[in-house]
Specification:
With 285 residues, this protein is mainly beta. It has three domains: 84 residues, Pseudouridine synthase (2-Layer Sandwich); 134 residues, Pseudouridine synthase, CATH 3.30.2350.10; 51 residues, Roll (Archaeosine Trna-guanine Transglycosylase, Chain: A, domain 4). It is 14% helix and 40% strand. The chain contains five helices and 20 strands. The longest helix has 12 residues. The protein is elongated and about 70 Å long. The protein starts with 8 loop residues before the first strand and ends with a strand.
């Protein structure tokens, strides 16, 4: 495979439940022959939208950090676990609330809230991941972090009497497992996340996602969305000889902000304008 024929961009992969996010990334890396990385890991239990940057597109992750995410989840009440989901060591006990009782606490769980991440998470604790310490039996505490939970919608009961379904829209860094824990605490009981599917992550939606198992060396380029199509910035064109490409700011008659920079019509990277002077903030080619 000639890597030069692989376009720069993102694969909107539909990760199946039971696989780690790194398995998806490694397959795309192997199929493209280029460095790749995902924007926001999904736990092995979870399925759904996993945007994977191909090649230099990984340099743009910071431009997608503020994206909103949407999840469909199931919480099982009357059970607790060390991982806050159904993959951990389950301890049964606690009441099962009614739909009306759940509806009564949802407003307290939305907005800008302080959320304590699960100990079984990738959070860094003294140079080690939280899940590594938890598996080793090390006692530690994680500080609460501000997250944005825009909405929690109760969709109804699942097949089991103690399982409820939810649609949750939130900002980056939010743990759905922690919402299950905090919701149960507000109801004076216990709960774990027993299913999770991400249906939206910024510009990436489940309707346009390609199932992981469908990706092959023959079709991988068909599923790479060009980076310039995903960035919500205006276009800014420069000629090849413009000094901006040598690191010298260029005067432009445009408002301050971020722009998609083009060099003789070819997408080059991200330009930043401040006080009427533009410079290349991120080079992609």
């Amino acid at each position: 495979m000639e890597t030069k024929k692989i376009p720069l961009g993102f694969v909107n992969a539909d990760k199946p439940s039971g696989l780690s996010s790194s398995v998806v990334v490694n397959k795309i890396k192997r199929l493209t022959g280029l460095p790749s990385g995902h924007m926001g890991t999904l736990d092995p239990l979870a399925s759904g939208v996993l945007p994977v940057g191909v090649g230099n597109a990984t340099r743009l992750f910071n431009y997608f950090l503020e994206k909103r995410k949407v999840y469909e989840s199931e919480f099982t009440f009357g059970v607790d676990s060390d991982t806050l989901d159904s993959t951990g060591e389950l301890v049964f006990g606690g009441s099962v609330p009614t739909a009306k009782e759940i509806e009564g606490v949802l407003s307290s769980l939305t907005g800008e809230v302080l959320q304590i991440p699960p100990k079984y998470s990738a959070k860094n604790v003294g140079g080690r991941r939280g899940y590594e310490l938890a598996r080793a039996g090390v006692e530690f505490e994680l500080p609460p972090k501000k997250v944005n939970v825009y909405s929690i919608e109760l969709l109804g009961k699942a097949q089991a009497e103690n399982v409820y379904r939810f649609r949750i829209e939130c900002g980056g860094g939010t743990y759905i497992r922690s919402i299950a824990r905090d919701m149960a605490a507000a109801l004076e009981t216990k709960a774990v996340m027993s299913a999770l599917r991400r249906t939206k992550s910024g510009a990436f939606e489940i309707e346009n996602a390609v199932p992981f198992e469908h990706l092959t060396a023959e079709n991988i380029t068909d599923y790479i969305v060009p980076t310039e199509e995903l960035l919500p910035f205006e276009r800014l064109d420069f000629a090849t000889e413009n000094r901006i490409f040598n690191g010298i700011p260029a005067r432009v008659d445009r408002a301050d902000g971020e722009y998609k920079a083009y060099r003789d019509g070819i997408f080059y990277g991200i330009a930043l304008i401040k006080d009427g002077r533009a410079k290349i903030a991120t080079k992609l080619c």
